[in-house]
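Propose amino acids for all 273 sites.
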């Protein structure tokens, strides 16, 4: 028996990295997962890992910034598993520059993936949540649903070279606190996890040649200079980067029944950073 038996979860960006770790963690506790990634192959790998461990999962792949993605995502959960209990807004990437070099396109692209996409997913889920919760309340049943939005310490404290990312992640905290107030009457706990320095492909060490990932037809640089990784690590009281699994554990805390009276909060998973 898992703490999330019978629950249905949407996890955006769950083909790789932290999103994959979140999907696997929730599935290990009994949740049925709707997996999402830009690319089909990593999503199928996540689904296979879940199914090989005895869980259930389906895919809803594609770009979360497409205007109708939220409706498709929610519909995938309801069609496949006849329910929706957990929403984790995790998908995203970075596209850094100092302000004098940042274009409008660059700024807007990061707002689209980290802010507009979660807004549209939550808006798409609102009708199911409202109607279902009202019926449950009329029947005298208290069923708690969970939303976990993924922010960053950049959104809390700012970070040089990330005005777009910091703006989006800071705004997502405002979304969290607002939705906690709007959806409290429907027994929905809405919280936020702000990650510190987590070891993923976005933060791995790079050499002089650098590394890129393709997003929406753009080759975007990823990774951090080894000397910068060393400097960041020295500021972390626990003395190391976090793992994707440790990041997922922070999200899981807000998905458990023990969080039924916690809402509108921001939890920093950063090793004390």
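Proposal:
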């Amino acid at each position: 028996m898992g703490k999330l038996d019978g629950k249905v979860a949407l996890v955006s960006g769950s083909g790789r990295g932290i999103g994959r770790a979140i999907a696997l963690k929730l599935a290990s506790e009994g949740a049925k997962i709707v997996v999402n990634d830009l690319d089909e192959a990593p999503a199928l790998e996540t689904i296979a890992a879940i199914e090989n461990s005895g869980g259930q999962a389906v895919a809803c792949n594609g770009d979360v910034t497409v205007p109708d993605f939220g409706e498709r995502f929610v519909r995938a959960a309801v069609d496949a598993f006849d329910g929706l209990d957990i929403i984790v807004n995790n998908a995203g990437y970075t596209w850094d520059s100092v302000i004098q070099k940042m274009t409008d396109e660059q700024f807007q692209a990061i707002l689209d993936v980290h802010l507009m996409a979660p807004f549209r997913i939550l808006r798409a889920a609102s009708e199911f949540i409202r109607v279902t919760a009202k019926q449950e309340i009329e029947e005298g049943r208290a069923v708690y649903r969970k939303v976990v939005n993924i922010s960053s310490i950049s959104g809390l404290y700012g970070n040089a070279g990330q005005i777009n990312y910091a703006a989006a992640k800071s705004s997502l905290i405002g979304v969290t606190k607002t939705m906690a107030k709007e959806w409290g009457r429907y027994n929905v706990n809405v919280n936020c996890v702000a990650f510190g320095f987590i070891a993923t492909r976005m933060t791995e060490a790079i050499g002089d040649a650098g590394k890129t990932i393709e997003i929406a037809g753009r080759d975007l640089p990823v990774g951090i200079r080894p000397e910068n990784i060393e400097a960041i690590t020295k500021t972390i009281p626990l003395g190391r980067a976090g793992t994707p699994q440790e990041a997922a554990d922070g999200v899981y805390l807000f998905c458990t029944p023990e969080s039924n009276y916690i809402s509108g909060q921001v939890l920093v998973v950063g090793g004390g950073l």
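The longest strand covers residues 145-152. Strands lie at 8-11, 32-35, 57-59, 86-89, 145-152, 188-195, 211-215, 218-222, 266-269.
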